[in-house]
Amino acid sequence: MTITKATTHVTQNEALVFERSQVGRRGYRLPALDVEETALDEILPAELRRDDGLEGVPELSEPDVVRHFTRISTWNYNIDLGLYPLGSCTMKYNSRLNEKVARIPGFAGLHPLAPEEDAQGALRVMYELQEHLAEITGLPGVSLQPAAGAHGEMTGVMMIRAFLDARDGVAEGGGARRGVMLIPDSAHGTNPASAHLSGFTVKTIRSTNEGLTDLEHLRELCAAGDVAGLMLTNPNTCGIFERNIKEICDIVHAAGGLVYMDGANMNALVGVARPGDMGVDVIHLNLHKTFSTPHGGGGPGSGPCCCTAQLEPFLPVPLVVKAGDAYKLDSERPQSIGRVKAFYGNFGMHLRALAYILTHGHDGLREATEAAVINARFIAHGLADTFDRPFDSPPMHECLFTDKRQTRKGVHTLDIAKRLIDYGFHPMTIYFPLIVQGAMLIEPTESVGRAELQQFIDAMKEIAREAVEDAQTVLDAPHTTRVGRLDEAAAARKPVLRWRPAEKAAGA
Amino acid sequence: MLRGLGLGSAEELFDSIPSDVLLKRPLRTPAALSEVELLELFESMAAENAAARRPSFLGAGAYSHYAPTIVDSLIQRSEFFTAYTPYQPEISQGTLQAIFEFQTLVCQLAGMDVANASMYDGSTAMAEAVLMAERVTRRSRVLVSAAVHPEYLQVAETYVAHAGIELGRLEVEESSGRTALDASQLDQTVAAVVVQSPNFYGCVEDLKAFADEVHAAGALLVVVVTEAASLGLLRSPGACGADIVVAEGQSFGVPASFGGPYVGLFATREKYARQIPGRLAGVAYDKQGRRGFVLTLATREQHIRREKATSNICTNEGLIALAATIYMTTLGRRGLQEVAEQCAQKAAYARRQIAGIEGFSLPYSAPVFNEFVVRAPGDAAALLRRVAESHNVTGGLALSRYSPDRPNDFLVCVTETNKRADIDALVAGLGANAGGQ
User: Fold this and answer.
1) How far apart are CA A118 and CA A114, in angstroms?
2) Collapsing DSSP states into helix, strand and coil, what is residue A244?
3) Which residues of chain B are within 8 Å of residue A341 when distances are taken between CB atoms?
C-alpha cells in the first residue's frame, strides 16, 4: 500500500482525570475573601449543605490538567489536519478570526439580561445576521433562537402546527386537525423525531430509482387529505438536487399543507438558489455547517429558522427588531409558538456566522458554493470506475457510493471506512442515507485543494484493490490507531457510563 | 478542474437546478471585508454594549465566575474545536474520554448515577426532563414550581404543547420565598414535580421534604439548578432524593456571551438510564483488551429510532461541556467548594449591607446561596437605571421584566468575582438614588 497523507507516530497514554488525581494538588488560586466572614451555619443550616466533601472530584495541578487534555486531544482527528469528508455535516475550515471576534470582551462578557439600551451592539449583530440570512434563503422572517439543527426543525414544524391551527380554526381539544407530516425515506432521523415531538404522525414517501422524491407517491399521500406538511432536504441526502422542487411544493400547497426544508445541505446553494424562490415555507439553517461555526466535537450548533411573511407571526419570541435607530427585543407576538430556549439562542455562534458572511462577501459566498460542488464532482469523477454509484444524477456538494462491488470479497462499507483511517483520512458518513445499502456519503467542502482530493481518491482506490487482493488487511483495520475496533455491542449490553473508584481497583 | 470534469464554466455545475429557481443576480449581502476591517467593525459594535464594561450583579440564569485561563486556551486546540461528533471512535478517543469524564463529574456534583453528554442548555434540559418523566411514569400531569426560572417555564410550555402533557403550578410561599407543595394536587395523574433550587428568587428549597411526598405519590422529583456553582456547597439534589437533575452549566468556565452557547447538564438514576435523552459515552474494549470509549445505548436516539426516539436532539454542546470539564478538573474538589463558599459569604455581606439601607427590605426569609430579592421603596427598574449612571454598577434584575405586578422588587446576584468595593458602590448607589422616585 502507498500511504501519502500520513505517517504513524507515537501517541501518549493518558489515564482518566480521576485516576490521575492526587490529594492536595490544586491548579487554581482565588483572591482572599475581602468581606467579613459570616458563620456558615448562619448562612445555610447544616442540613442544606453538602456533607460528602465532593468526594471523588479530582485534584490536579495546572500542568497536570494541561498535559491531560493536551494528550487526549491528540487522539482526535480534526478539520485542521485535513479532509474530513462526513457527508451532510459540512466539515469546512473554521476561521481563527471568527474565534477572536467571539472573544471580544464587549460580547463575551455581556449578560443576557442587561438592559436593551446597554446591549445595542449585540442586538445589532443579531439583527444584521437575520437580514443576511433572509437574503440568502429568500425567506424574510428569521429567528436565531434554536440551538442546533434538530432544534430548528422542531421550531419550524411547530410553526407549521400553529399556522394550520390558526388558519383552520381548530381550537384546543376541538375537531380533527391535519395530523400527517410527510417525510422522504432518505431523510435524517431528526426529521421524524422532530415531527413526532410536534404532535404529528409521520408518513414516509418513497424515493425513485433516480434518488428523487417520488411525485406519484407524494400525490397519493396528499390525496388522503390529512396532510399538514412535508419535510424535505434539498439537495437531498443522496446529494442530488430535487429538480421537481417547485412541483413538489405546489402539490403540498394544493393539498393545504406547508413545506419545511431541512437546510443541512445549504452549502450547495448559497448564492446560487434560494429556498424561498422554490416555494419552501420554512427552513432551518445549520450555522455550524454552512456558516463555518466550529463543530466542537459535537456542538454547540445553531439552527436559525427562516420563513415566509405568512409564517412570521408564529416565530419564537423574542425577535430582534429595529425601531428607528434602536434595536429591541419584541416579545409581544400573540401568535408565536413561544420560547424554545432561554435567552436568544447561541449568540457566540451568531457572531461567528456574521463574521463568516462579512469576510466572504457576496461573491465569496458564491465562490465557496462553487468550490464545494466542484470538489464533490472531482471525487465522484475520480471514483466512478472503482465504486458503485447508486444514482446517475450529477452530485451537488456531496457524492454517494456503495460497497456493492467490494462486498463480493466480504469487505463492507464499515471496513472501507476503518481502512481510510490508516491512510490518514477521517472516513465519510457511512450507512446513510438508509435507503441505499452500504452507503458512503462523501462531502469534501470547499476547504480542500486538488492535491489532497487526489490523495483521497488514490487512498480509496488502493483500498478497493486491497479488498480484492488482501481483504483481511481491510477487515482488520484500522491498524494505526491507539485502540482497534471497539466492541460496541458489549458496551451497550453492560453499559459503564461513569468512572467509579472500584474501576481503578479492578485495574482498568 | 472544470475542464477535467468536462465542464465549460462554473454555471454548468448547477445544471441540475431548474433555471426558474436559480438566483440570477449577486446576493445583496455586503462586499468582503479584510481582517482589519472586520475586527474594527466588531470592536465598534462591542463598544455599544455598555453593560459589559460595568461591574454587575445580574444573575438569574447566567453567572459571572472566575475561569482559569487554561479553560479557554485548551478548548481552542484544533483537535477539540474542529472535530465533530465522535462517529469514528478510533480517531475520536480524546472527545469520547472527555465526555466520559464530564458525565462522571456531573454525577458526582449532582449526586446521581448516570449523566448524558449534555443538552443545549438548562432550559431545554428541564423541558426534556418533563418529557422523560411522562415516558417513565406514563402519567400526563407535571407540577412546576412558580419559582422556576420564568424562561425555563416558557420553554417547557412550548415543548409540551403537543405532547399531551399538562403543566400545573405550585405557588410560592409569600413569607419564605420557597415553593409550597400543595398535597391535594399530588394525585395519581402526576408524573413529576419540578422545583428549582436555589430557586429563581435565590431561596434554597427544602428538597428532602419534597422528595418524600412526591415519591409517596408515585411521581418523580425533578430538580433544576441554574447556578451550578451552588453544587459546591449545597447538599446534592441526589442526596435529597431527586430522580432527575437538570442544570445550566454556564457557571463552570463559560462566558455570559449574551445568553449562549451554554451547556445543559442532565443526570438521573441508574434504573432510568435507557430513558435518558441525548448522547451517552461508555467504556468499550477492543480485541486486544485495550480500554476505550464509544457512544452507546444509541437505540434510544433519533438516527436509529426516528419518530420513536427519546428525543430529537443530535448535536449537543460538546465544546462547552469540555470547557466545563476542564473547569471542574482545574478547580477540583477544593476549588469548587471555595468558589461556592466565597459566593455565599459575599452574598451574605451584600444582604446585610442592603438590608441596612433606609427604605429597603428583604421580603423572603428562606436561606439563600448567592442570589436574593430586594424590595425597593419605589420602581426598581428606574432605580437600577439611575444607579448604573451614577455609580457605574448594574445593580441586578428588576423583576418587573417577568412579573409586571412586582414593580419594586429586584434580584441581586453576588459571586466571587464581585469585589467588596463593587458591593459597597451598589449599596451607596441604592441609598443615594432611592429618594428620586
Assistant:
1) 6
2) coil
3) 120-121, 123-124, 155, 260
Contact B23/A272, CB-based, under 8 Å? Answer: yes
Inter-chain residue contact B342 with A147, CB threshold 8 Å: no
- In this structure, what is the dihedral angle of CA atoms A290, B250, A79, B291, given to the nearest 10 degrees? -130
B103 neighbourhood in chain A, CB within 8 Å: 497-498
Nearest CB neighbour to A300, from listed B54, B261, B334: B261
C-alpha cell at B328: 471542574
What domains are there in chain B, each with its CATH number?
56-67+333-433 (3.90.1150.10), 69-327 (3.40.640.10)
Q: Which CATH number fits domain A100-358: 3.90.1150.10, 3.30.70.1450, 3.40.630.30, 3.40.640.10?
A: 3.40.640.10
Work out the minimum CA distance from B431 to partner chain A, whole angstroms. Answer: 20
Q: Determine the residue type at B271.
A: K
Per-residue pLDDT of chain B (437 residues; tens, 9 = 90+): 888 898 999 999 999 999 999 999 999 999 999 999 999 999 999 999 999 999 999 999 999 999 999 999 999 999 999 999 999 999 999 999 999 999 999 999 999 999 999 999 999 999 999 999 999 999 999 999 999 999 999 999 999 999 999 999 999 999 999 999 988 999 999 999 999 999 999 999 999 999 999 999 999 999 999 999 999 999 999 999 999 999 999 999 999 999 999 999 999 999 999 999 999 999 999 999 999 999 999 888 888 888 888 888 888 899 999 999 999 999 999 999 999 999 999 999 999 999 999 999 999 999 999 999 999 999 999 999 999 999 999 999 999 999 999 999 999 999 999 999 999 999 999 999 997 64
The residues, any chain, with a CB within 8 Å of residue A127's CB and separated by 6 or more, are A320, A321, A322, A327
What's the pTM value of the predicted model, to 2 decimals? 0.97
- Residue-wise burial string across A174-183, b where 16 or more C-beta atoms lie within 10 A, e elsewhere: eeebbebbbb
